[in-house]
Amino acid sequence: MSDTRLSLLQQMPIFGGITDEVLEFLLQSTRIVTCQANDYFFHEGDKAEELYVLEQGKVEILRHWHGQDYRISTMGQGDCFGEMALIDFCPRSASVRALDDSRAIELSATGLQQLYEKDPAQFTMIYMNLGRELSRRLREVNDLLFRASVLHEKDGFHPT
């Protein structure tokens, strides 16, 4: 097992409180996905059953609207993307494109299900951590929407 991969996972909020034994167990069921610069890890609308931990490189998160792609954010080493797939089982809500040559650890819902069978408490901790991470991201988006709303209102726009 790669000590570097184990160390990377140990530093991530979604794996906070997870034992080394469980992380090693999870790593056994992962695969490594590589993308060259400008290639996609996945596209908006794709079937979603995995999350990715960026091991190397930088990616951008894109949404498609009216024939054009718009950048939502960028992510670097140690960041995770695609985590909503493990919560809602809906198609991908955005695309992820590599900005430079990138490599990610792919963790599937099936791998997490195997963890549930082995250690339900650690499985639950991961999902609680995922919920916290999604909540943190939602708070950021709410703040951005609030600021945009206030700016529009100052410019004479009144949504009500």
Q: Would you give an account of this structure?
A:
- The protein contains five helices and eight strands; from the N terminus they run H-H-E-E-E-E-E-E-H-E-E-H-H.
- The protein is of the alpha+beta class and 160 residues long.
- The chain is 41% helix and 27% strand.
- A hairpin with a 2-residue loop joins strand 4 and strand 5 (68-75).
- It has a single domain (3-154), classed as Jelly Rolls.
- Helix 4 packs across helix 5 (120-154).
- The chain has helices at 3-10, 20-28, 85-88, 109-118, 120-154; strands spanning 31-35, 40-42, 50-56, 59-65, 68-75, 80-81, 95-98, 102-108.
- It has a four-stranded antiparallel beta sheet. A four-stranded antiparallel beta sheet has the order 2-7-4-5, with no helix packed on it.
- It is globular, with a radius of gyration of 17 Å.
Question: What descriptors fit this protein?
Answer:
Jelly Rolls, 160 residues, 27% strand, 4-stranded antiparallel sheet, 5 helices
List the helices and strands and how they pair.
Elements: H1 3-10, H2 20-28, E1 31-35, E2 40-42, E3 50-56, E4 59-65, E5 68-75, E6 80-81, H3 85-88, E7 95-98, E8 102-108, H4 109-118, H5 120-154
Antiparallel strand pairs: 1-8, 2-7, 3-6, 3-8, 4-5, 4-7
